[in-house]
Amino acid sequence: MKKLDIEKIKNAWGHSMRTYCLIAVTMLCITLPVQAQGETDLPPGTYTLDKSHASLVFHVSHLGFTNYTMTFDSFDATLALDPAQLEKASLRATINPASLDLPSPPEGFTDTILNDENWLNAKVFPEIIFISRQVEMTGEKTANVHGDLELLGVRKPVILETVFNGGYKGHPMDPNARIGFSATGTFKRSDFGMAYGLPEPGTTMGVGDEIHVVIEAEFTGPPLQEPDLSR
């Protein structure tokens, strides 16, 4: 009886190790082609936001005690890009202000922020728009993206400090080109006419003027081109 139990354990262990090795080899085969690709291998064209791999986060000072954090859950972006000439890229992004997500808001607070004319006034201004005007390369994979932000019907220049995280031209598990960026930026809400609740000069007792933006975004592009086997 004891011998039978030991044999079962040996068989189970052997099966587990074979399964583990198979998974490891499979993952290695998948990732090696990706790691071997350089940014210059990426195809030029139109890249669209992969909304399942993107986030749009804002921070604003609350009484100087914390940086209150909020997100927008509905946004989109289109990027015209030649990876060999990143400085010529152009971006258009839109945000639905009604998709604002606040952490554990008091009853009625979200509705006030969304619809009050002192805040987002989303029923009157149902879209926030960013359009890039210039890409200023600051390093091999970093850039300042200069653009216009339209909020509450007011358009003002904003700079996004951006890092190109890389990408690939596609592989069997993900047959479209894919690229990723991280970006941060700052603007003053008062520049757009949103001045309600600002602290008195020299104090922090209120809602801060500076809005800090943190963006993580992946884009998908042209499909992976099958090799021409006729040559």
TrEMBL record:
InterPro entries associated with the record: Lipid/polyisoprenoid-bd_YceI (IPR007372), TTHA0802/YceI-like_sf (IPR036761)
Keywords, comma-separated and alphabetical: Signal
Entries under SUPFAM superfamilies matching the protein: YceI-like
Signal peptide: 1-36
Top-level taxon in the UniProt lineage: Bacteria
SMART domains: YceI (SM00867)
Domain Lipid/polyisoprenoid-binding YceI-like: 46-220
Protein name: Polyisoprenoid-binding protein
